[in-house]
Amino acid sequence: MRRRGVNPGDRCGIYGSNSPEWITAMEACNSQAVTYVPLYDTLGPNAVEFIINHAEVSIAFVQENKLSSILSCLPKCSSNLKTIVSFGNISDMQKKEADELGVSCFSWEEFPQLGSLDCELPPKQKTDVCTIMYTSGTTGEPKGVILTNGALMAEVLSVDQLLFLTDRVVSEEDSYFSFLPLAHVYDQVIETYCIYKGASIGFWRGDVRYLLEDVQELKPSIFCGVPRVYDRIYTGTLAKVSAGGGLKKKLFDFAYNYKLGYLEKGIPQEKAAPLLDRLVFEKTKQALGGRVRILLSGAAPLPKHVEEFLRVTSCSTLSQGYGLTESCGGCFTSIGNVYPMVGTVGVPMTTIESRLESVPEMGYDALSSVPRGEICLRGSTLFSGYHKREDLTNEVLVDGWFHTGDIGEWQPNGAMKIIDRKKNIFKLSQGEYVAVENLENVYLRCPLITSVWRTKTMETIITEYYK
């Protein structure tokens, strides 16, 4: 990269699915004090072009099947972007197309041959920008979240402490299944943590049809998922139990309630019902390869009944977390061996301070006997601002506190429960507010519905569209 004129502080785009090449490009940027910028097109058809120009990306590492997409952007991006490196091969025709616009292209094998092993690594500081991660914006343009080296490392160490509290020390014997998008901070933090601890990382093929087949092949001990994935495990397991007949169902229910009772008493996962784990719940564990011992859930609320079910049947600890790109991933996490935290996102992680701010127009009082209000955060994992958008930064960062827009409720045990979204409500003509996200979660439990879009008509009637 330095041979191509990429210097410390410059921006490097990474565009593609999870792969060893993605991680290699990211760590190359880290070693050279170059800011990496994930590129992905799920933010809209022109998102890649916008991010390249907005972040002033000068070099991009690109998955082979994404080359045509990024080449189509070049006429409007070549003022900044001067080098493209394919994760695999690149054709002579593609090289010629880029060269005509002043952009040089290299295959994965060609690019390292430009470099030298004699160069010294540049100095790096905690305050240096590690990455700019773009998220969806209310104005239609993605927002670039600035995260420093210090924020990333503080988050990694917080994950380490969380797992220590659940008696799950990660070592070189562990393996992690990488399928959540590396372009998002959630998976980036976990994979960085695995590298820090020396654990192995296995990458899925990128085809959801073979997801479970890939899991069975890798047999990971660490699995991070989102509620939709865990809900499929839940419904699939119950369907198999029901198909086994009435006697099998009764035995399963007995084992379930027996173990649940011990978990509720505070008995650790592995000591609650070891015999029943081997005789009854082993099949649920096998659905994730048979070796999993750490389950993490994030990105959206995990339904309480699914969380309880997996804590009982997976033979693994399960921690549900809450976080945002602006908080560098998880800022709240439940402790896997503390059962009363089921249905909550747990307690603040060690690097974060949290408070609730009253939202009187919605009836939420942070000082009431049941404290409710907007979740506000500050701490060492917090973002530094939105790239080139000081106006948006000032809207959400007030006196050092980041206003998340999410409504939380403190529980008596110190855990946080997410109950609402400040901006995701409709006000009806009679002055009442409706949190339509709750309706969406109910509808999505029906297997016939794959997506829900809700809006409010001019007559203030809530309407739902189903697919």
From TrEMBL:
SUPFAM superfamilies: Acetyl-CoA synthetase-like (SSF56801)
Every AMP-dependent synthetase/ligase domain range: 2-387
Gene Ontology annotations of biological process type: cutin biosynthetic process; wax biosynthetic process
Transmembrane segments: none
Domain of life according to the entry: Eukaryota
PROSITE patterns for this protein: AMP_BINDING
GO CC annotations on file: endoplasmic reticulum; membrane
GO MF term list: long-chain fatty acid-CoA ligase activity
Pfam family, one: AMP-binding
Protein name, UniProt field: AMP-dependent synthetase/ligase domain-containing protein
Source organism of this protein record: Salix udensis
Phylogenetic lineage: Eukaryota, Viridiplantae, Streptophyta, Embryophyta, Tracheophyta
